[in-house]
Amino acid sequence: MAKPEFEFFPVTDVDYTVCPGDNPAITERILSRDPEGNVATRILRYEPGADSSPMGVQKHDFWEEVYILEGSFTDLTLGETFTAGMYACRPPGMPHGPWRTDEGVVTFEVRYHSK
């Protein structure tokens, strides 16, 4: 099902909420979501020192595109740090993470299913 239609609005009108995994240092602003809640466009924020290791390696059944707006974080499995201005496009099933950040990071993400 498609996401709802929105005209321009300030993203600051959308509150950050704690992401699944219940780590209060990892939050998201859901900008749009399909009615079933399966795919979304969001801003993801890791506070300085946040670590998603308890959530383990992530794999999704959807496409995920990520653009780093601010800061950096390290994929602990790959041992690589990714910084502002970098982009990833992950097909369904692609493993990634867990992540850790010293300075904090903010990303813009689009998640969707492809037919």
Automatic annotation (TrEMBL):
Gene3D superfamilies: Jelly Rolls
Domain named ChrR-like cupin: residues: 25-109
Protein name: Cupin
